[in-house]
Amino acid sequence: MNRSIRDPIVLICVVLAAAVMAGPAFGADEPRKVPPNVLFIAVDDLNDWVGCLSSHPQIKSPNIDQLAASGTLFTNAHTAAPLCNPSRSAILTGLRPSTTGIYTLMPGIRQVGSLKDWVTLPQHFGRNGYFTATAGKIFPDGSIAPKDRLKEFEVWSPKDGTKRPPQKFVHTPDDIPGMDWGVWPPDDHDTADWKIADATIENLKTA
After folding, report:
1. Which value, to the nearest 10 degrees, does the dihedral of the CA atoms of residues 131, 134, 138, 143 take?
2. What angle do CA 138, 20, 159 make, to 5 degrees?
3. Alpha-carbon distance 129 to 142, whole Å?
4. Predicted local confidence at residue 47, as pLDDT
5. pLDDT number for residue 13
6. Does position 14 have pLDDT exceeding 60, yes or no?
7. I want to staple 199 with a disulfide (CB 3.0 to 4.6 A). Which of 70, 76, 157, 158 is the partner?
């Protein structure tokens, strides 16, 4: 990867929290200032159940608490929608579901006519001198065709979701495979979150 080590980095992934910083602006006649690197972390279904928000007595999250203590912790944040696709689309575009028309698990943002050429968050960073990389499900599943991925991020880490157990742990009235509860997989190293974290670390080391 032929890059100056002083080029700023933005890496967007999915693990357990959210934080973003903006780099300083500079004019044509001003000396170039190197903006800060950005690590943006998004998560589904976290609610406010982390130790640093003191909202649930059973939660133990020392690593996310340490991260929160070392940066800026937003304590009054709200999701744009109670589903992953419209809420992620809102994060990526800066537009409400009432504007995008995305309320459910489909469509993806590039399937909406008014959003086909909309500049997303990673594209904005890329157009302002940042190297961009992603890991995990920052874009809703299947919403970006493989041939179009490099238009959104320079690097897409392989996505390897956690495999389902051979048999369901819990049977529900609507017995769909995705509705289940139990410790799986037995080894944390085999979870999707662990693999996403490893990919993020490698991107940060090599960027």
Report:
1. 90
2. 20
3. 27
4. 80
5. 55
6. no
7. 157
Rounded Cα distance between 153 and 167, Å, is 37
Chain centroid to CA 137: how far? 6
Asked whether 155 and 133 are in contact (CB, 8 A), the reply is: yes
**Residues in CB range of 202: below 8 A, 6 or more apart:** 157
Closest CA to 198 of 142, 125, 136: 136
Query: What's the rounded Cα separation, in Å, for the pair 161 and 14?
Result: 12
Contact 160, 195 (CB under 8 A): yes
Unique residue bearing structure tokens 């995990």 = 136
Task: Give the position of tokens 């065709």.
Answer: 145
Task: Count Cβ atoms below 10 Å from residue 41 Cβ, excluding itself.
Answer: 21
Handedness of CA 74, 80, 84, 88 (dihedral sign): negative
Do residues 77 and 98 lie in contact, with contact meaning Cβ atoms separated by under 8 Å?
A: no
User: What amino acid occupies position 129?
Assistant: G
89: tokens are 């689309």
Neighbouring-strand partners of residue 156: 134
Strand arrangement, sheet containing 38-42: 38-42, 9-14, 131-135, 155-156
Strand partners, 11: 39, 133
Q: H helices within 76-183, ranges in order?
A: 84-93, 97-100, 121-126
Distance CA 39, CA 103 (A): 27
Are the C-beta atoms of residues 130 and 9 closer than 8 Å to each other? yes
